[in-house]
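thoughts on these tokens:
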Amino acid sequence: MSFVWGKFVTFYKNTNSLYFRDIISHKSIKMNTRNSILFSEKKKVFKYDSKDNNYEWVIEFNYKVSGLSRVENYVFVTTYSNWGISYSHIIDFQKGEILWEIEDVFYSVHIVGKTLIFYNKKKYFTGVDIDSGKEIFKIKSPFRWSSPKVILLNGKYNIYSSKKVYILDLKNGNISDSKLPKKFNPKEVSLVLDEFQININNIPSAGGDYGSFYGGDTGGGDSGGGDGGGGE
């Protein structure tokens, strides 16, 4: 069982299509996987149709591609310059169009409705409209001396450490005190696959790789790019 787009679902496969069933509404929704593969070469990203042996689209960037991931119809691409500056690009999976881009790297990624929430190395939590890139809020982490962790519980975005828990309001970026359920011990938890079901990597330690698209905890750890196959 997984949690996708705010709903509990189960997955099953029929021929070349992937289906998921909303447990609440009991409706089956089709996710057409077709035979599409995403891959990168130097400064380019390709969407390849293995059935027809054709490229559906090719996008060339100004800098080398260091990370590639996909969530539903959104492709996340990270590039980096020779001066060590990283950029994140959001692409429409079907059309192959760059929706928007930003000079930043996404960590602890969550998508709730049409809001993309991410954390960055400057310790800011930012919410943007995933289709336009328009900023909804940007707020400094409430944890000054430590790296927080993030977990989506009951649709609420919790930022926590071993000693303190806050809830981030995704409409305006306000932060308020909170508590985690009694059965969840923040002092013992290391990695989390929460209701959004993504944990690709953590924030890299100093001198780590150029990252791409990161989900899950925002604490220190090894870095690396995500897989470029099907959606999460």
Summary: The chain has three domains: 1-33, 34-103, 106-200. The two ends are 13 Å apart (CA to CA).
